[in-house]
Amino acid sequence: QQQADSLFRQCVVCESNGSSDVSKPVGDSVQLDVQIKEQTFSSFIWKHNNNIVLRYTSKGKIIKHDSYKDRVQFNEETYSLTLKNLQKTDRGLYEAILSSETDTTLAQYNLTVWGKYYIKSVRVKRNSSCIIHAFEFN
Q: Where is the Immunoglobulin domain (predicted)?
């Protein structure tokens, strides 16, 4: 019995009610949080568009996908994921999944990462509208 228990870890879980939209500029950071209550699990997974970003095992081992190694932080107490130095390729759906006998999705975030903009020109005429031409770069 004691050996079987070592394969699972306790955490607190609250299931998500839909996804949250998050929008950040390129180069910024974002923290994705999870609401939790007590639950036994074999692993806790963060996914990006169905690809594993990070796996946290019941033995407390954190396994990061190579492309995120230097850009993610995982909080072992809150299970939150922080993405640093955001790139446009980080756009998409992030899911926090608790894996035991069945998988439970705890949180979903739709992340939009936008480039930086600069203003090319501004023309203003008295008693009329203002036209701003902005261009995305990066």
A: 19-114
Q: Which residue ranges of the chain lie beneath pLDDT 50?
A: 1-16, 138
3-class secondary structure, 35 = coil
For residue 43, how far is the Cα from the chain centroid? 17
Beta bridge partners of 81: 32, 74
pLDDT tens digits, 74-100:
999 899 999 999 999 999 999 999 988
CB distance 72 to 62 below 8 Å = no
CA distance 130 to 87: 32
Strands 43-48 and 51-57: antiparallel
